[in-house]
């Protein structure tokens, strides 16, 4: 079985603020890490690899320093890595990014399973999985909470708001993975050096069969018009009396008068 | 390309019931849309959920009755919606619920139509030329982005639950169109079997009308018991702040805020919660907020309709008594 | 990016995540229970922390001094005890790498992955004065017979392998490597220390332990040199521990001062508070630069004795003072056993004594200054 795991390097904390001067997100002093959900996708791949001897290829699109995350994935147990890096990819939205990733997966060829985290913790879109499935023209199972490999494919548990789904999927298929699916391991310290025996391949735009109109900013229908800090909601606030029982009695009276508390509700 | 001058909403149906987010989207769209508002409803052949939807007064409901599609295969549904849009023309916008279903289906359709989609929106408005301005949080709600899709249609978005109010209309005039002849090609790759999730003892906090929320200060066994007694008395559900998810009995589904759930109860009672932004991001749609905290400067008070400065536990006990 | 930078980045990412999930949440519990709770110790082993600076040829990760010190810094931010336990192991491994013969290295270095190695000099009769010790080794045929009593050993009881300082002649000091599986090896009393309570500190007793010649570290008479070398290593890493403690203090105190209000103003806006916090930050950064410089000099084969002494002497007093100031800012919370500030002071205080007192550091620094001008 050949598995491609798509990962993203994200800031180590989402606790970011907008810089008053630059009006942009202030990322000073914040280093990158593998998106937490993607660690679960990697772990899912490694679990399948342990059972089936599958080949695990890890892939990301981004600037050259994303190579750290690929190398980390190699140290965790991936067999090889592909970095998609080109100035032409800059400014891509989800659609343009998904297009490039899907073309890279096509170039690898004969991929049976594509695994992604359910979403990234920075952009929070969760769109990449369905977009790549569509461009690869394969079936998708998103938000998998449990994956088991079985004869001819996968067995997946998935939870909707009020529904539990038991899905059997034939290969090829794309699956996005939740943080319920497994417990990702830490990189073993000694394995880091050994991982350099494995290869990180860089593909530029010219290495892929791309339609120039569909990549980067030009290929992105979405435009970010502005960013801002979340507004705090200010309410009219009424201070209740200091004595707890007086406070409680007054509150209950007010709530009943306003029909907020109705006896039989 | 000729566009259809309508704004569309995808009706989310689970367990043969319309998810309330659909009603919230209809009410919001009715408020902001100059163009007719159309709901696309996919339901089983024996169902008539359009009757429920009508009460919220969209201009039109397109009903596709198909027992295969309701199985919930994203690829099959994408094919069906794509076929529908080929017939009708591309609407100005097409919004979905930011639920597991919506967040899976919408991006696949987006890729099929090669247009823009904004996930998990907290606000929407139209500009005069029909541009849909979509406000989306990123970095775990720490940053808000305004996103537009200038040159592609439909402008797609998924919208978070409980951000907008749902209001029934008196005498709505809703046209229902039944599509019966839609060809659905079965996706043989997946076999999906669905069953209702086992009923949890209490309803989920996202749907609860009354919530008693407890914070870090209330982590002791005794305080928990008190809060639970108050919740019982009020027929409320317990919600927690993040630190309490460390306890065995609470998890992310009980957690209110940034990385937890957005709630929209009629009444929310905060016991010993200071009101960090991560928390208050999740309570902005609570209609009435009551908070008790010993710190007179607790930020939560600014978000509260009524507040009590003092011991939250004593207040909770007093409230229990006042409700006798 | 080169392999070294990438490896270091991956390592530090891993360490940060490990500290965040497995160490920091248990900081108070480790202090209160005097043990590495929640299976922490097996997790440390599983992820090969013990092999961090062990050369690759012995199955280690082979990270250099500077990177290892940064790791110790990160760990100390979560829990200083664990950082000191690792420091004790690293400096011991380092001496075997540096002074051990091939036979000794081949026997013990591959084991350093799973078994802690400790370094022990102090005895009831002498600590900072090594000539005051009574332990001794006697040559019989091609074997050495070791007798003596070693106390206050960092990781004593937890460690399984010990580098012990003994007399091989009335005025000749030498180091041997002994193992808890050897006949005549016994564990003694555990200390009950004020701070760094997670670190086991204990005694070993050696009764006619018989070792091969290969267990001699370096040559006979090299005891002082090896001891000094271990001290230098330890002092650099202690600078890293102290930096971590001050970072922890800064996190606590800035968070508190930002949220705590007096008359509607967060106390961080008040000059008196600002001065204290700024001084903690300056001390933290100074200690960091000192240990990183010393580690860099070590990695580049330079004499770093003075810089190592400075990192420890400056860092330990600063961290205690920073803790005291933090306690004052937090007021009642700072004084509470339910908040971490008080144990950070106790932890930092240990490092004004261990691995050479601050007085001894100043002697070393002064003599180096004089020497460089002579």
TrEMBL record, chain A:
InterPro entries, alphabetized: ETF_a/b_N (IPR014730), ETF_b (IPR012255), ETF_beta_N (IPR033948), Rossmann-like_a/b/a_fold (IPR014729)
Pfam families, A to Z: ETF
Residue stretches making up the Electron transfer flavoprotein alpha/beta-subunit N-terminal domain: 22-212
Superkingdom classification of source: Bacteria
PANTHER family: ELECTRON TRANSFER FLAVOPROTEIN BETA-SUBUNIT, PROTEIN FIXA
Protein name according to UniProt: Electron transfer flavoprotein small subunit
Species assigned in the record: Companilactobacillus baiquanensis
UniProtKB/TrEMBL annotation, chain B:
Cross-referenced SUPFAM superfamilies: Adenine nucleotide alpha hydrolases-like, DHS-like NAD/FAD-binding domain
UniProt-listed InterPro entries: DHS-like_NAD/FAD-binding_dom (IPR029035), ETF_a/b_N (IPR014730), ETF_a/FixB (IPR001308), ETF_alpha_N (IPR033947), ETF_asu_C (IPR014731), Rossmann-like_a/b/a_fold (IPR014729)
Annotated ranges, domain Electron transfer flavoprotein alpha/beta-subunit N-terminal: 7-199
Classification via Pfam families: ETF, ETF_alpha
Family matches, as PANTHER family: ELECTRON TRANSFER FLAVOPROTEIN ALPHA, ELECTRON TRANSFER FLAVOPROTEIN SUBUNIT ALPHA, MITOCHONDRIAL
Family named by the database record: Belongs to the ETF alpha-subunit/FixB family.
Protein name: Electron transfer flavoprotein subunit alpha/FixB family protein
Protein's organism: Companilactobacillus baiquanensis
From TrEMBL, chain C:
SUPFAM superfamilies linked: Acyl-CoA dehydrogenase C-terminal domain-like (SSF47203), Acyl-CoA dehydrogenase NM domain-like (SSF56645)
Domain Acyl-CoA oxidase/dehydrogenase middle residues, every copy: 118-208
GO molecular function annotation: oxidoreductase activity
Pfam families recorded: Acyl-CoA_dh_1, Acyl-CoA_dh_M, Acyl-CoA_dh_N
InterPro entries documented for this protein: Acyl-CoA_Oxase/DH_mid-dom, Acyl-CoA_Oxase/DH_mid-dom_sf, AcylCo_DH-like_C, AcylCo_DH/oxidase_C, AcylCoA_DH/ox_N, AcylCoA_DH/ox_N_sf, AcylCoA_DH/oxidase_NM_dom_sf
Cofactor (UniProt): FAD
Domain of life: Bacteria
Keyword Magnesium annotated: no
Sorted UniProt keywords: FAD, Flavoprotein, Oxidoreductase
Keyword Metal-binding annotated: no
Positions of the Acyl-CoA dehydrogenase/oxidase C-terminal domain: 232-366
Gene3D superfamilies, sorted: Acyl-CoA dehydrogenase/oxidase, N-terminal domain (1.10.540.10), Butyryl-CoA Dehydrogenase, subunit A, domain 2 (2.40.110.10), Butyryl-CoA Dehydrogenase, subunit A, domain 3 (1.20.140.10)
Domain Acyl-CoA dehydrogenase/oxidase N-terminal: 8-111
E.C. code: 1.-.-.-
Family: Belongs to the acyl-CoA dehydrogenase family.
Identification of the protein by name: Acyl-CoA dehydrogenase family protein
Organism, scientific name: Companilactobacillus baiquanensis
């Amino acid at each position: 079985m050949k598995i491609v795991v798509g990962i993203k390097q994200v800031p180590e904390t989402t606790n970011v603020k907008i810089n008053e001067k630059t009006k942009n997100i202030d990322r000073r002093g914040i280093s990158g890490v593998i998106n937490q959900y993607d660690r679960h996708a990697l772990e899912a791949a490694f679990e399948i690899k342990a059972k089936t001897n599958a080949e695990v290829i890890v892939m990301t699109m981004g600037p050259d320093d994303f190579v750290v995350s690929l190398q980390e994935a190699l140290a965790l147990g991936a067999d090889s890595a592909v970095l998609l890096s080109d100035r032409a990819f800059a400014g891509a939205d989800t659609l343009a990014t998904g297009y490039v990733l899907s073309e890279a997966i096509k170039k690898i060829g004969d991929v049976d399973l594509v695994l992604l985290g359910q979403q990234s913790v920075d952009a929070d879109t969760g769109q990449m999985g369905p977009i790549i499935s569509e461009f690869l023209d394969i079936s998708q199972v998103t938000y998998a909470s449990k994956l088991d490999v079985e004869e001819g494919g996968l067995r997946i548990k998935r939870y909707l708001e009020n529904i539990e789904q038991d899905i059997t999927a034939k290969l090829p298929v794309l699956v996005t993975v939740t943080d319920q699916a497994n417990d990702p391991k830490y990189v073993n310290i000694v394995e880091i050096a050994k991982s350099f025996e494995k290869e990180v391949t860089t593909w530029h735009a010219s290495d892929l069969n791309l339609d120039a109109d569909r990549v980067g900013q030009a290929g992105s229908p979405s435009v970010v018009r502005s960013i801002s800090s979340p507004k705090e909601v200010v309410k009219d606030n009424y201070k209740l009396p200091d004595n707890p029982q007086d406070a409680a009695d007054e509150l209950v009276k007010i709530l009943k008068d306003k029909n907020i508390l109705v006896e039989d509700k | 390309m000729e566009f259809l001058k309508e704004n569309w909403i995808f009706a989310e149906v689970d367990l043969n019931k319309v998810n309330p987010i659909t009603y919230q989207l209809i009410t919001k769209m009715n408020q902001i849309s100059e163009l007719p508002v159309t709901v696309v409803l996919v339901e089983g052949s024996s169902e008539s959920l359009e009757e429920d939807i009508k009460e919220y007064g969209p201009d039109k409901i397109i009903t596709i009755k198909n027992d295969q599609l309701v199985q919930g295969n994203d690829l099959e549904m994408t094919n069906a919606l794509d076929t529908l849009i080929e017939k009708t023309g591309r609407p100005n916008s097409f919004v979905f619920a930011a639920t597991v279903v919506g967040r899976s289906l919408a991006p696949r359709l987006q890729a099929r139509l090669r247009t823009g989609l904004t996930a998990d929106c907290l606000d929407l408005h139209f500009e005069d030329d029909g541009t849909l301005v979509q406000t989306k949080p990123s970095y775990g709600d720490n940053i808000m982005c305004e996103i537009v899709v200038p040159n592609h249609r439909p402008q797609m978005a998924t919208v978070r639950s409980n951000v907008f109010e749902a209001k029934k209309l008196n005498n709505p005039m809703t046209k229902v169109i039944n599509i019966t002849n839609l060809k659905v090609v079965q996706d043989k790759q997946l076999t999906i079997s669905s069953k209702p999730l086992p009923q949890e003892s209490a309803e989920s906090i996202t749907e609860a009308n009354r919530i008693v929320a407890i914070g870090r200060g209330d982590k002791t066994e005794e305080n928990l018991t008190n809060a639970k007694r108050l919740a019982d008395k009020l027929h409320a559900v317990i919600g927690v702040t993040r630190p309490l998810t460390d306890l065995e009995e609470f998890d992310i589904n009980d957690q209110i805020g940034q990385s937890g759930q957005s709630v929209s109860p009629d009444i929310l009672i905060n016991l010993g919660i200071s009101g960090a932004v991560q928390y208050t991001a999740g309570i902005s749609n609570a209609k009435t907020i009551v908070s008790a905290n010993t710190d007179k400067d607790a930020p939560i008070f600014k978000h509260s309709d009524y507040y009590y400065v003092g011991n939250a536990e004593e207040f909770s006990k007093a409230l229990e008594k006042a409700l006798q | 990016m080169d392999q070294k930078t990438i490896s270091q980045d991956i390592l530090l990412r891993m360490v940060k995540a490990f500290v965040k999930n497995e160490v920091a949440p248990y900081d108070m519990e480790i202090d209160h229970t005097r043990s590495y709770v929640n299976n922490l110790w097996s997790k440390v082993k599983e992820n090969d922390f013990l092999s961090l600076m062990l050369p690759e040829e012995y199955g280690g990760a082979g990270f250099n001094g500077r990177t290892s010190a940064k790791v110790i810094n990160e760990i100390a931010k979560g829990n200083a005890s664990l950082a000191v336990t690792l420091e004790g192991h690293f400096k011991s491994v380092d001496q075997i790498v540096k002074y051990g013969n091939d036979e000794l290295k081949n026997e013990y270095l591959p084991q350093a992955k799973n078994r802690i190695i400790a370094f022990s000099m102090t005895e009831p009769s002498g600590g900072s004065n090594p000539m005051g010790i009574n332990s001794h080794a006697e040559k019989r045929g091609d074997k050495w017979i070791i007798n003596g009593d070693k106390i206050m050993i960092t990781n004593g009881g937890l460690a399984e392998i010990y580098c012990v300082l003994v007399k091989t002649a009335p005025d000749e000091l030498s180091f041997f490597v002994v193992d808890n599986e050897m006949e005549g090896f016994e564990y003694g009393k555990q200390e009950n220390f004020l701070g760094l309570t997670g670190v086991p500190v204990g005694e070993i007793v050696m009764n006619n332990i018989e070792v091969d010649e290969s267990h001699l570290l370096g040559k006979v008479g090299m005891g002082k040199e090896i001891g000094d070398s271990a001290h230098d290593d330890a002092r650099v890493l202690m600078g890293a521990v102290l930096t971590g403690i001050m970072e922890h203090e800064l996190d606590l105190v800035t968070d508190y001062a930002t949220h705590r209000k007096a008359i509607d103003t967060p106390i961080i806006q008040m000059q008196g508070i600002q001065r204290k916090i700024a001084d903690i930050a300056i001390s933290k950064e100074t200690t960091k630069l000192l240990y990183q410089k010393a580690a860099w000099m070590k990695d580049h084969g330079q004499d770093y004795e003075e810089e190592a002494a400075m990192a420890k002497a400056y860092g330990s007093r600063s961290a205690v003072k920073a803790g005291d100031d933090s306690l004052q800012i937090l007021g009642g919370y700072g004084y509470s056993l339910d908040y971490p500030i008080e144990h950070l002071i106790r932890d930092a205080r240990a490092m004004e004594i261990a691995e050479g007192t601050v007085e001894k550091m100043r002697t070393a620094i002064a003599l180096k200054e004089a020497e460089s001008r002579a």
